[in-house]
Write a structure and sequence with these properties.
With 265 residues, the protein is mainly alpha-helical. The chain has 2 domains: 2-87; 129-264, Alpha Horseshoe (Serine Threonine Protein Phosphatase 5, Tetratricopeptide repeat). The protein is built from 10 helices and 2 strands; from the N terminus they run H-H-H-E-E-H-H-H-H-H-H-H. The chain has helices at residues 2-5, 11-32, 34-126, 142-156, 160-173, 180-193, 197-210, 217-230, 234-247, 252-264, and strands spanning 129-133, 136-140. The chain has a two-stranded antiparallel ribbon. Helix 5 runs antiparallel to helix 6. The longest helix has 93 residues, at 34-126. The chain starts with a helix and ends with a helix.
């Protein structure tokens, strides 16, 4: 390209060249004549035109190459921008998925916590609980506690007929419960209140047989003596009161029994 560029002649140089050529032509004209001079000028012009044609072709080729290069560069930039946009889209989707996964995980953890709490609550319904009744502490099943508390609520309300039914149901349903001595005692009292004396005595006697050392045992014996008095069996009542004083001499109920014995003689 540098070799061809050497044919490019600036206008000022062209004038100078033409001047020199003119001078040379004049000298040759003197020697060779007008025809030779004209041929020389035509030849020079032809070479100049060839040089300009070559220069124009080179410039066109250079412009075309530059245009191709620019087009290729624009395509590369467009491809790069598309790749950047695609990466942005993928990143946005990835962040969205991460947020969704984090949200799903949080919801799953909350549901798991709720399930665990629910299971724990259900298990607690079946776990034995400690209770204190009539001065005694023991463990019972939740169902036992529920049924006993409900029966005693009825008793405390003074509905002794309904209390008999509730306590009888409890004794039948929970016949091996640690509540049983207390349930028999209060059942006997409910029956005594409704003048079901025979049934009342039977339950007090059953309570004494089951738990002679129960805190309510002295009261059960006193209640039995009361039933015997209702039956006009004063001899049996005196025997029961005497046994009460002997068996539980330090109890408060024993003092009541002594007082009654003095009045029955």
């Amino acid at each position: 390209m540098s070799a061809m560029s050497s044919f490019h002649i600036r206008p000022a140089g062209l004038v100078l060249m033409l001047a020199c050529l003119g001078a040379g032509v004049s000298a040759h004209a003197a020697l060779f004549g007008d025809d030779e001079a004209r041929r020389a000028i035509l030849d020079l012009r032809q070479k100049l035109e060839q040089s300009q044609t070559v220069q124009k072709a080179l410039m066109d080729e250079s412009n075309q190459s530059q245009a191709q290069l620019n087009a290729q560069l624009r395509r590369s930039l467009l491809d790069l921008q598309m790749q950047i946009d695609a990466l942005k889209s993928d990143l946005s989707k990835s962040l969205g998925q991460q947020e969704r996964l984090a949200r799903d995980l949080s919801e799953l953890q909350l549901r798991q916590k709720d399930v665990l709490l629910s299971v724990d609550d259900r298990l607690k319904r079946f776990e034995p609980v400690k209770v204190t009744v009539d001065g005694r502490e023991f463990s019972v099943e939740p169902a036992e506690k529920r049924d006993f508390d409900q029966a005693m609520d009825v008793f405390r309300q003074g509905d002794f007929q309904a209390a008999q039914g509730a306590l009888t149901t409890f004794v039948t349903r929970h016949h091996s419960s640690a509540y049983l001595p207390s349930a028999l005692f209060w059942l006997g009292n409910a029956q005594y209140a409704t003048k079901s004396y025979k049934e009342s005595m039977a339950n007090f006697q059953k309570m004494l047989s089951l738990a002679p050392n129960h805190p309510r045992a002295p009261e059960s014996m006193l209640a039995i003596s009361n039933v015997q008095i209702e039956f006009k069996d004063l001899k049996a009542a005196r025997v029961t009161l005497t046994d009460l004083v002997k068996s539980y001499p330090n109890s408060e109920t024993a003092a009541t029994a002594r007082d009654r014995l003095s009045r029955l003689r």
